[in-house]
Amino acid sequence: MCTTSLLRIDLKALHEGENTAVYELDDAYFKAIAAPDVQKGTLGLRFKAKRTGDLYELDFHVEGVVYVACDICLEEMELPIRNDGKLTARLGDENVEDGDMAIVDKEDGVLDASWYVYELIALAIPIKHVHEPGQCDPAMVAKLQQLSADGERSGEVESIDPRWAKLQQLRTED
């Protein structure tokens, strides 16, 4: 887990009631995190904390763009993302994180939200990220088609097993 001073939240310094802050996350943040999925991006992070005694309800809203590799042509592509997350924290005897609950050492009182925010960003990225049709690198797409299994069989005549041919007659036009 990385630590960045930007997202180290001093819980004890927060006043009772609502506290808000706005952060800008850029390439330096992703470099400090050193995670493999995202290395570049420009995002805005809106942070809201509601303190009631030693219990803190933290709301995060992240919105902006990240740059990831296209799954087809491997060129860098811009991907807009937006996500919200909630984290509950309280002061305790030692630092423990369990899902959406964090216990922060009461002596220190500082919560490092760097990795939590990164996970919020990573979860907003779709599993499949590809350019819009026609935007991929044409040379890479041509090479991919040439080397794919379908490209090798383009000259072959496809024969259908006669047992399965009867099933084709049952197919509807839906």
Structure description:
The protein has helices at 27-33, 114-123, 138-147, 149-152, 162-168; strands at 8-10, 17-25, 40-52, 55-69, 76-92, 96-98, 101-105, 110-112. With 174 residues, it is of the alpha+beta class. The strands form two sheets. The chain has a six-stranded mixed sheet. The chain has a two-stranded antiparallel sheet with strand order 1-8. The longest helix is centred in the C-terminal third of the chain and has 10 residues, at 114-123. The protein is elongated, with a radius of gyration of 24 Å. InterPro entries: YceD. This is DUF177 domain-containing protein. Pfam families: YceD (PF02620).
- Helix amount: 10-25%
Q: How many discrete structural domains?
A: 2
Order of strands, main sheet, comes to: 2-3-4-5-7-6
The general outline is elongated
How far apart are the termini?
A: 51 Å
Look at the helices and sheets and give the structural class: alpha+beta
Biggest sheet details? 6 strands, mixed
Radius of gyration: 24 Å
What's the number of helices?
Answer: 5
Quick summary:
This is DUF177 domain-containing protein. It comes from Candidatus Prevotella avicola. With 174 residues, the chain is an alpha+beta fold.
What would the keywords be for this entry?
174 residues, alpha+beta, six-stranded mixed beta sheet, two-stranded antiparallel ribbon, 22% helix
Question: How does the SSE layout of this entry go?
Answer:
Elements lengths: L7 E3 L6 E9 L1 H7 L6 E13 L2 E15 L6 E17 L3 E3 L2 E5 L4 E3 L1 H10 L14 H10 L1 H4 L9 H7 L6
